[in-house]
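Worked example 3 (structure in, sequence out).
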């Protein structure tokens, strides 16, 4: 409800021309809310507005909107894409209780009826019910492409052909068609990355991407186009590395598409992050506007994840290369907020780093110091996006067990050059608890301890473990913080032993 109150205050100072109204009636929801996700450039999941739905299914909300956007509306584990424009409105409804939400009225009804029929968010059958991995092991990439991808692309082609026959403006037709095609490429790439090895991917990416241009056919493209650009970088990287290998693995010569050597690129990744290298590929193969927007999204993402080091460094790259960027002022404010958080938590005694953590060779050396408490161990990394997503749910978790004998330990897996960034990150995020860091190599021994009695010995991130008050490992591969009640029950059961 806090988000709603803040939004209502904002609406008093934002003119109607800079707002969008979304209303309607959605009946039969299991969870009586809808979530409106407005992308900064192309990431729907960084910020969302949770809107309560009344008992009769009605809702009515106005929210700030400074330019046209494709927004994602989710409800009961379903979602749909809608077109929004400042000063306009859209009404939604489901024809039957629990049915799919669709356009029902408003000033943008006509446009959204076409977009809804196109459904860029449609998942192909090879993702909803994927074929067994074993059945694809011995198939060549071109056979997989012919069997699964080509029919999918033909299906999307039929949908885009239908858009051409509508009375929409030429620009909107191009926008919706490009979004549908871009999403189709993203689904194909998602499928391939999940089943193929690197040498197979290189061949598959050529089949998929070589015939197409990464450049947008319109100004101000939509979010799926930028996801396509992000996936296309994988193809460029594959081609660049293949070309370097064919040229004798000369790591000091500029890589194709990047105009930076592999050695220099490796240094820059350590300083600024992989996002910077990805932006170089976009900058050298796409328009200046697309490259600027892509870089701005990377700054926004890092700021949203409260990664001050990378957010600040990328913001400086944005300022240097696009001094008049429209994205810069708001991003500068976001980074400034992170700097203030760091300053506030510099002396926070509840954020404790294990003394001589670099010499710790057993996780029990840390757990034993907390005997008498149930310990929830979080194995994570500053480079791990799912790990950082889960951290958003830790305040609620800690509130649940406030004043109870529960301690929180965070085992970060990062290389030594990330030491300062790790310490900054936990302070910016006010991550109270006990912290230590290990390199991947050092982590081998700790994984063996943690997974000694586990049936699944996969070493993925993040992972969670619960120790009882005697220091014994009680739950291996415990629930994530985002699972809320399921995790709370696990911890409670160990507390009550």
């Amino acid at each position: 409800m806090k988000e709603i109150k803040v939004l209502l205050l904002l609406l008093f100072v934002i003119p109607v021309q800079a707002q969008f109204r979304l209303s309607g009636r959605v009946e039969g929801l299991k969870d009586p809310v809808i979530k409106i996700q407005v992308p900064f450039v192309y990431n729907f999941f960084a910020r969302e507005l949770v809107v309560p739905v009344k008992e009769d299914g009605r809702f009515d909300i106005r929210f700030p909107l400074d330019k046209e956007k494709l927004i994602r509306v989710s409800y009961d584990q379903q979602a749909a894409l809608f077109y929004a424009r400042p000063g306009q409105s859209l009404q939604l409804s489901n024809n039957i209780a629990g049915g799919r939400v669709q356009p029902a009225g408003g000033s943008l009804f006509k446009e959204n009826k076409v977009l809804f029929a196109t459904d860029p968010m449609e998942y192909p059958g090879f993702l909803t019910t994927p074929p067994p991995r074993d059945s694809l092991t011995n198939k060549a990439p071109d056979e997989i492409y012919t069997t699964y991808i080509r029919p999918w692309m033909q299906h999307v082609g039929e949908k885009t052909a239908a858009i051409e026959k509508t009375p929409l403006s030429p620009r909107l037709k191009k926008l919706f068609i490009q979004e549908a095609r871009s999403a189709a490429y993203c689904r194909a790439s998602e499928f391939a990355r999940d089943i193929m090895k690197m040498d197979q991917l290189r061949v598959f990416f050529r089949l998929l991407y070589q015939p197409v241009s990464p450049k947008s056919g319109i100004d101000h493209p939509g979010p799926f186009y930028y996801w396509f650009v992000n996936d296309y970088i994988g193809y460029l990287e594959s081609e660049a590395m293949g070309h370097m290998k064919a040229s004798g693995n000369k790591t000091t010569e500029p890589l194709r598409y990047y105009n930076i050597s592999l050695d220099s690129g490796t240094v820059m990744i350590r300083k600024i992050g992989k996002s910077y290298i990805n932006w170089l590929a976009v900058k050298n193969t796409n328009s200046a506007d697309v490259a600027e927007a892509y870089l701005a999204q990377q700054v926004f993402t890092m700021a949203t994840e409260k990664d001050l080091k990378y957010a600040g460094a990328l913001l400086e790259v944005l300022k240097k290369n696009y001094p008049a960027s429209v994205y810069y002022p708001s991003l500068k404010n976001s980074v400034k907020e992170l700097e203030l958080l760091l300053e506030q938590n510099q002396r926070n005694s509840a954020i404790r780093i294990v003394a001589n953590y670099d010499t710790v060779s057993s996780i029990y050396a840390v757990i034993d110091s907390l005997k008498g408490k149930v310990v929830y161990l979080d194995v994570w990394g500053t480079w791990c996006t799912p790990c950082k997503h889960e951290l958003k749910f830790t305040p609620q978790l800690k509130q649940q067990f406030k004043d109870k004998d529960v301690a929180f330990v965070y085992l970060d897996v990062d290389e030594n050059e990330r030491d300062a960034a790790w310490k900054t990150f936990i302070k910016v995020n006010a991550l109270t608890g006990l912290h230590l860091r290990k390199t991947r190599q050092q982590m081998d021994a700790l994984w063996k301890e943690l997974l000694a009695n586990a049936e699944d010995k996969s070493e993925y991130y993040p992972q969670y473990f619960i120790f009882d008050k005697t220091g014994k490992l009680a739950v291996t591969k415990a629930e994530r913080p985002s699972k809320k009640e399921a995790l709370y029950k696990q911890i409670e059961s160990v507390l009550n032993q």
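Notes: The longest helix spans residues 170-195. The CA atoms of residues 64 and 418 lie 38 Å apart.
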